[in-house]
Amino acid sequence: MRRSLFLLIIGLGGAAILLALGIWQVQRLGWKQAIIADIDSRIAAAPVALPTNPDPETDSYLPVAVSGQIEPGALHVLVSQKQLGAGYRVIAPFRTDEGRLILADLGFLIDEQKDSAAPIGPADITGNLQWPREVDGFTPEPDTARNIWFARDVDAMAEALGTEPLLLVARETSLADSPVTPLPVDTAAIPNDHLQYAITWFSLAALWLAMSLAFLRRRPAAKAES
């Protein structure tokens, strides 16, 4: 009797812990969905003028429209796009009509066109401010000799090009017949696996209960046979 009670406690206790983890992931899912919905609304808002002193926390994803001049010296960040293959994000110095020099992420350039002339000259750009966190301890140093970067490091790129540490990711540009295709800011890149985690925990809870019940039912039968 004591052994059966102990097994019952272990079975119910383990299932309760697994269910609690599943419920926590459901709560995290709601939290993440609210964040993504907020970001989506900020991305799609009407564009405004470039802020004087943009803040990475409050102005991230802010839609902005600027006019000015794309200057020489674009940097290439190695990326890959589905159905297109390997290529590069083109990060160019952009001087606004007000005289500010910022970084402009103009979009994707396929690998075969890397050595072609990058867009230079007058342009209008509508996009979103972003401070991407793509650099970690495993990110290689940029190959400056071949102009290949492996992440969008805003501070390092700004230092290399002599611009403000400010990145505008283009959604639309006035560049006609340009080989560079805009890669707008997209919340699809934000990881949101909480539903899968919740299903996993709930499935484990059900399995734990089934195994515990089977073990409890098996013990009296084994005892009767002895």
Automatic annotation (TrEMBL):
Subcellular location: Cell membrane; Membrane
Pfam families: SURF1
Keywords, in A-Z order: Cell membrane, Membrane, Transmembrane, Transmembrane helix
Principal location listed in the UniProt entry: membrane
Membrane topology: Multi-pass membrane protein
Membership in a protein family: Belongs to the SURF1 family.
Protein name: SURF1-like protein
Organism expressing this protein natively: Sulfitobacter aestuarii
Organism phylogeny: Bacteria, Pseudomonadati, Pseudomonadota, Alphaproteobacteria, Rhodobacterales
